[in-house]
């Protein structure tokens, strides 16, 4: 049971990472900076709970605000470019963040231990959950409450005028600009919200892995971040969740028994999924079909 | 319908007939699960560990197996899971193993995975306020210093690199008093290499060697011209390379290309392996490495042959995995572990207590001491690459 609960934790945190990229993708931008924001969230939250002995929730709030602020600051210059140039710019940012933590050392003495980030050797003893008696189930519930809140927030955003504006910019920037939408403000806002969500995800990640280091926040993680919403589909937030379940639950954990073949199948199945479902696992058509199905089911039960 | 009934009857009869046979043939087994990197740049370590665990299991089984707490005999079986040297996957693998009847796990390969894994374990045994996992792990490869301190459920059978390099540097100072300067090279993004370089450098400085500088590179780097140019400019007597075989070979080849010929070369423990010789035997000629394994005793020779049979290579890491199987056998027998589904947590507690109580274990090179913080004090020797093989250069008196 503990194994499945642990897996549900991982899926929850990766869903947050995917949702952070989802916000940016709605505006038609491909950002590989999410791993950088995730790293900022992880280090800030870890330092606050370990070094400053803060409770977890305020630490996560601060990590989200810091990551969001950095995303906002990065958004202005980075979003002046688009397409492949934006990909290059955001990869460069992500690598800059990773290298910052690669060289970042700030330790304090606590008894016989040195606590805090220690450059390339990472940051250990982020043991808030076990030290405060949180069971695996408690951690799962906490993570999924956060995921549910973020998904609800994004769902509401998606169905509000703001969501329509984000999608309008994503569909056709020129048309959106011609009706008076401030493109820069929209893109930077999306980037900021994405950074905020990545900051929360990173903060939780640091606490359930108990040790973080620069290498965890490289290009591979950034690729995973955009793979979730792209593979899941951008029609709504549930696509990202479905993709996180598919990748983490099925491709990584479900196929572990296949040993060396797992890595080969991993890439092959993603390519297959993208070919079979080019607009994502949960595209607009599937969403409509599911809605019809639910509506029909309700009518039947009502009759 | 009649045909379906007939088929079912045949199947049922077949299964009934096979039942007594299988029950007779069934013997008790104890599954030991290992885990580590079987993918990526360091996959060879996982492959070697798996081979060593299986080789040791076969050796034990051929001599009758292990005696369980109820007096019955059991055979070891070995399963090995890939964590891809990734902390998140390592935790998941650990939880997967802990959700079975297993009472101990062997691994991981990478120190960064061990850091996370040991972190999710209960820190102090019996601390009710700590909800960490109560499951004993014994590491065979993860070599970064001081990792077992993280949890009282964490154990290691890896050598103390601090002691090894302290001894090696002192020996070099005694044997080669004319060597005055050292230049370092480090695979900066790999926890083990980075931590060990810290040991090499501090020991060198402490012994009076002048450290002229350090070149840094990454585990996945393939070009080293800039780093070696700096090394050449420093023109030090000794070059110490703290890196795994892949980049060690890259650097050594670049050193040969640029004509960098120090009077003495020192390498990282993990590079005293067959991979270095396969990758760059010519360029590695003369490199000195302290190691806790070489086929210099009858037991070590046997282990090397057995590991090779299972498709692996015996080196200091896989030899540790081989030794661990014998340690586990001894603890199972001394603690009277039952290995039954209804005694899982009791067996885990006994295994932890048994491992913690060990003061000494049998190693392939001799007796291995155990420290209070659950680390090993392993015998070691210095090997050097000579004519395409690792040969013993010196065996320090411990």
Summary, kept brief:
The complex is a heterodimer of chains A (303) and B (398). Chain A has helices spanning 2-26, 34-50, 56-78, 84-103, 128-131, 136-158, 161-171, 173-178, 183-209, 219-232, 238-254, 261-276, 284-302; strands at 108-110, 113-115.
Secondary-structure topology with pairs:
The complex is a heterodimer of chains A (303) and B (398).
Chain A: H1 2-26, H2 34-50, H3 56-78, H4 84-103, E1 108-110, E2 113-115, H5 128-131, H6 136-158, H7 161-171, H8 173-178, H9 183-209, H10 219-232, H11 238-254, H12 261-276, H13 284-302
Antiparallel strand pairs in A: 1-2
Helix pairs in contact in A: 1-6, 1-9, 1-10, 1-11, 2-3, 2-4, 2-9, 3-9, 10-11
Chain B: H1 2-25, E1 29-36, H2 43-62, E2 66-67, E3 73-82, H3 87-98, E4 105-106, H4 111-120, E5 137-139, E6 154-156, H5 161-175, E7 181-187, H6 191-206, E8 210-217, H7 225-234, E9 238-242, H8 245-258, E10 264-266, H9 274-284, E11 288-291, H10 298-309, H11 316-334, H12 344-357, E12 360-362, E13 367-370, E14 376-377, E15 381-386, E16 389-394
Helix pairs in contact in B: 2-10, 2-11, 3-4, 5-6, 7-8, 8-9, 11-12
CATH class of chain A: Mainly Alpha
The largest pleated sheet of chain A is described as: 2 strands, antiparallel
Assign a percent range to the helix content of chain B. Answer: 40-55%
Q: Output the CATH class name of the largest domain in chain B.
A: Alpha Beta
CATH architecture of chain A: Orthogonal Bundle
Tell me the quaternary state: heterodimer
Distinct helical segment count of chain B: 12
Low-confidence stretches of chain B: 7-25
Write out the strand line-up for the largest beta sheet of chain B, numbering strands in chain order: 2-3-1-4-5-6
Give the mean pLDDT of chain B: 91
């Amino acid at each position: 049971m503990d194994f499945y609960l642990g897996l549900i934790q991982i899926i929850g945190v990766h869903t947050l990472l995917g949702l952070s990229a989802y916000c940016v993708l709605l505006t038609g931008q491909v950002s590989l900076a999410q791993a950088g924001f995730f790293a900022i969230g992880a280090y800030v939250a870890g330092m606050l709970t370990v070094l400053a002995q803060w409770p977890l929730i305020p630490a996560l709030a601060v990590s989200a605000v810091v990551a969001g602020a950095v995303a906002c600051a990065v958004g202005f210059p980075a979003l002046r470019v688009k397409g492949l140039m934006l990909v290059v710019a955001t990869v460069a940012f992500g690598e800059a963040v990773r290298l910052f933590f690669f060289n970042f050392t700030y330790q304090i003495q606590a008894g016989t231990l040195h606590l805090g980030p220690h450059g390339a050797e990472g940051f250990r003893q982020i043991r808030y959950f076990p030290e405060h008696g949180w069971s695996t189930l408690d951690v799962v519930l906490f993570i999924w409450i956060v995921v549910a809140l973020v998904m609800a927030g994004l769902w509401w955003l998606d169905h509000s005028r703001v969501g329509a504006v984000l999608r309008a910019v994503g569909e056709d920037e020129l048309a959106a600009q011609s009706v008076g939408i401030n493109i820069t403000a929209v893109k930077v806002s999306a980037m900021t919200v994405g950074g905020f969500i990545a900051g929360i995800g990173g903060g939780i990640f640091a606490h359930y892995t108990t040790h973080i280091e620069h290498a965890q926040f490289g290009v591979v993680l950034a690729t995973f971040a955009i793979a979730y919403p792209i593979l899941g589909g951008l029609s709504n937030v549930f696509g990202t969740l479905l993709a996180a379940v598919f990748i983490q639950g099925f491709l990584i954990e479900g196929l572990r028994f296949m040993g060396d073949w797992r890595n080969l199948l991993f890439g092959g199945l993603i390519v297959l999924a993208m070919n079979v479902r080019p607009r994502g696992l949960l595209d607009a058509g599937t969403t409509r079909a599911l809605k019809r199905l639910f509506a029909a089911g309700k009518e039947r039960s009502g009759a | 319908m009649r045909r379906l009934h007939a088929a079912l009857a045949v199947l049922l009869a077949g299964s009934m007939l096979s039942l007594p046979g299988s029950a007779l043939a069934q013997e008790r087994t104890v599954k030991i699960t290992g885990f580590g990197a079987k993918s990526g740049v360091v996959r060879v370590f996982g492959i070697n560990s798996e081979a060593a665990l299986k080789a040791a299991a076969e050796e034990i089984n051929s001599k009758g197996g292990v005696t369980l707490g109820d007096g019955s005999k059991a055979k070891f079986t070995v399963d090995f899971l890939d964590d891809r040297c990734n902390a998140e996957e390592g935790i998941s693998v650990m939880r997967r193993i802990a959700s079975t009847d297993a009472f101990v796990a062997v691994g991981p390969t990478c120190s960064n995975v061990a850091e996370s894994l040991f972190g999710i374990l209960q820190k102090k045994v019996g601390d009710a306020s700590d909800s960490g996992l109560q499951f004993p792990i014994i590491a065979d490869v993860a070599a970064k210093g001081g990792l077992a301190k993280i949890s009282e459920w964490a154990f290691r059978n890896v050598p103390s690199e601090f002691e090894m390099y302290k001894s090696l540097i002192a020996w070099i100072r005694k044997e080669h008093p004319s060597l005055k300067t050292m230049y370092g090279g480090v695979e900066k993004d790999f926890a083990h290499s980075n931590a060990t370089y810290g040991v090499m450098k501090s020991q060198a400085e402490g012994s009076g060697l002048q450290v002229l500088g350090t070149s840094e590179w990454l585990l996945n780097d393939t070009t080293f011209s800039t780093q070696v140019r700096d090394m050449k400019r420093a023109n030090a007597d000794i070059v110490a390379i703290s890196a795994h075989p892949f980049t060690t070979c890259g650097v050594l080849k670049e050193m040969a290309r640029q004509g960098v010929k120090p009077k003495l070369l020192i390498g990282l423990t993990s590079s005293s392996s067959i991979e270095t010789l396969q990758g760059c035997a010519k360029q590695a000629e003369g490199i000195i490495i302290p190691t806790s394994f070489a086929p210099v005793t009858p037991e070590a020779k046997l282990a090397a042959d057995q590991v090779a049979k299972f498709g692996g290579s015996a080196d200091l890491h896989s030899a540790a995995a081989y030794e661990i199987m014998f340690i586990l056998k001894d603890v199972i027998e001394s603690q009277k572990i039952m290995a039954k589904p209804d005694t899982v947590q009791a067996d885990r507690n006994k295994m932890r207590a048994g491992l913690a109580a060990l003061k000494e274990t049998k190693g392939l090179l001799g007796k291995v001491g155990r420290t209070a913080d659950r680390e090993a004090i392993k015998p070691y020797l210095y090997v050097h690459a000579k004519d395409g093989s690792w040969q013993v250069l010196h065996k320090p008196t411990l």
